[in-house]
Design goal:
The protein is mainly beta and 192 residues long. 5% of the residues lie in helices and 48% in strands. The radius of gyration is 25 Å and the shape is rod-shaped.
Length: 192
């Protein structure tokens, strides 16, 4: 496969990918005897998730995957194991090398990265504040894998300190409104 790698958000239609196999030196196997399918691999575990002619990862959870092509002898199709949650890409390669069935795995594969959709953060802090007092605001479901931004929507602050989900704000004027924003490749979500 010579297609570009894919980076998309969980559930995106961009994860319904359509690949055209390419054969070096036009060495395509005779269509009457051989067929072509795709192997979807979870690269964190090397487990084969699916062997299918359709490459639709739109229902897959966030993670890193690879799609490789598999050319196989039609008569040997029943010998190719169905993915069972433990059949790994190395097992498939061993079965091909040991001639359990006649097949050839593509030399090039396409990487698929599925980014998680973030939910608005659970942001907690006082509803009313007094000037020149320091108040603590906390992201209760803080996840270090996300990038957070604290936005002051209204009011004026003297200081904003903190990190890792806990912030101290000293207000100069009010009423003040503060928002916690999660910035992701899949779009920003906020709680004020």
């Amino acid at each position: 496969l010579t297609d570009p790698d894919v980076l998309a958000c969980e559930g995106s239609s961009e994860l319904i990918v359509d690949f055209e196999p390419s054969f070096p030196n036009n060495n395509e196997a005779p269509a009457a005897e051989y067929d072509y399918t795709y192997v979807i691999i979870n690269t964190d575990t090397d487990v084969i998730e699916e062997i299918n002619t359709v490459t639709d990862l739109s229902s897959y959870p966030p993670g890193e995957y690879q799609i490789c092509g598999l050319s196989y002898l039609i008569a040997d199709e029943p010998l190719i194991p169905d993915p069972d949650g433990s059949y790994e890409i190395n097992d498939l390669e061993d079965d091909i090398d040991d001639e359990v069935f006649c097949a050839d795995l593509s030399d090039e594969c396409v990487s698929i990265t599925i980014e998680p959709m973030a939910l608005p953060p659970d942001f907690d802090g006082p509803d009313e504040v007094c000037i020149n007092e320091i108040y603590t605001y906390e992201i209760l479901d803080y996840d270090p894998d996300f990038n957070y931004v604290i936005n002051i929507v209204s009011g004026t602050i003297e200081s904003l300190d903190g990190s890792d989900g806990e912030y101290e704000i000293e207000w100069l004027t009010g009423p003040g409104e503060v928002c916690a924003v999660i910035e992701t490749a899949c779009g920003d979500v906020a709680t004020c």
